[in-house]
Design goal:
74% helix, single chain, 19 helices, MetI-like fold, mainly alpha, 2 domains, 419 residues
Length: 419
Amino acid sequence: MSAAIEPRSQRFTAPAVVIGALVGAVTVALVVMLWSLVATVVGGMVTTMPIGEALILGVLLGAFTGVVRGRRDTPVALAVGGGLLLALAYLALRAFRPLGLDAVQPIWGVVFAFVALGLAGFLVRYALRDLDLRRARRDVIERVIVRLLRGFGFAFFFVIILFPFWYMLSASLKTRAAMLRDPANLAIEFGLGAQTLLRGYWEVLFTFDFVRFIGNSALVATVTMVVTLIMAVLGAYAVTRLAFPGRTFLSRSILLIYMFPAIVLVIPLYAVFTQLGLRNTLPGLLIVYPATTIPVALYMLRSYFQTLPRDLEEAGLIDGCTRAQVIWRITLPLSMPAIASVGLYVFMIAWNEFLFAFMFLDSPAIFTLPRGMVMLDSQEVPRQYLMAGAMIITLPIMLLFFWFEKFLVGGLTAGGVKG
C-alpha cells in the first residue's frame, strides 16, 4: 500500500504552478516590452506590444516550469508539458513579431519568435532556481519578489544607461537629409551601405583633422597619467610610512586645491602662462593637468596604502632592501588594483578636460579632442558630425575601461601576508 504512494518530491503541487505562472507572466511581459523597444529603436517603426498574449504566454511558460519542478519524469508532467509547449509555440508566433520580419520573410519571424521564447524560458528558470516550490513559504515568496524587482531594476537602468549612447551612435550614422527629416528617429538604416553610414566619421576624422586631435589628446592624457602616478605614489607612500615635520598637516590638506573652482584658477594661470610663453602650447597643459590631478590621486593612493600591512615592508628592510626597492618590489605589486584605477581615472580627466584646453589653446594644430569639438558646434556643421565627434571621444574611454576591468578585478585578490 505504501509503495503505491508517490514520494512527496514527485507530487503535483499547486504552489509550484501558481508561483511559476506568476513569475512567468511578469518575466515574459518584461521580455516583450524590451523586445518591442528594441524593434522600435532598431527597426525605425512603431511596434505594438501584445501584452495580453504575452501574459498568457508567460503564465503557460511559468506553469510548465512549475509542473516540471514539482513532478519530474512522470506521465502527467509529460502530457501537461506537451500541451503547454504547443500552446507556447502558437502564442510565441503571434506575440513576438520583431522588426516586421515575419511579414517579409516568414522564416525569420519564426526564428526570432523562438529565440524570444527561449530567452523568456531561460529567465523564468533562472528566477525559480534553487527554490522549493512545493510549499508557498514566506521565504520563497520573498525571494521570488526580490528577484523580479531586481530584474525590472536591471532592465530599467540598462535602458537609461544605453539610451544616450545609442542616440549618439544612431545620429552619427544618419545622412543630412534623414537628420533634417526626422531627428527623433533612432533607427539605423543599414541598407544605405557602409560608405554612406560612415561618411560623418570620415569627414570628422580627416576634413576636420580629428586624427591630429586624437594624437594630441592621447599624448597629453598619457603624460599626465604617468607624471601623476609617479608623484602620487611617492607622495602617498611618504605621508603613510615616513615621519617628517608637517606630515599631519600635509595629509589633511591634500585636497585643499579642490576648494577652488577651476574657473577661479584659469584666469591667473592664463595671465602667468601668457607672460611665460606657455599659453597655446601642449607643455602648458602638461603643467596644469598634473597639478590638478595629483592631489586627488595622492588622496586615493594614501587611503589604499594605509590598508597595506607594514610587516612585508619591514621584512624587506630587514633583508637588506633599500626604501626604493621596498616600494618597487613590495608596495607597488600589492597596490596594482589601486594604481590601475587611479591611472584610469586620471587618464579620463585629462582626456575629457575642456576648460583649460579652451582657454590656453588657440592653434588648431595642437587642439585636443574636447577643444576640437567646439569646431563642430556650429550651424554650418551638420548635427551628425557633432554626434560622430562625441562618439570618437567616448569610445576610446569605454574600450579602455573594459580592457582595464580585468586587471582591476584580478588584482583585488593579488598579494597579501602568507600565513
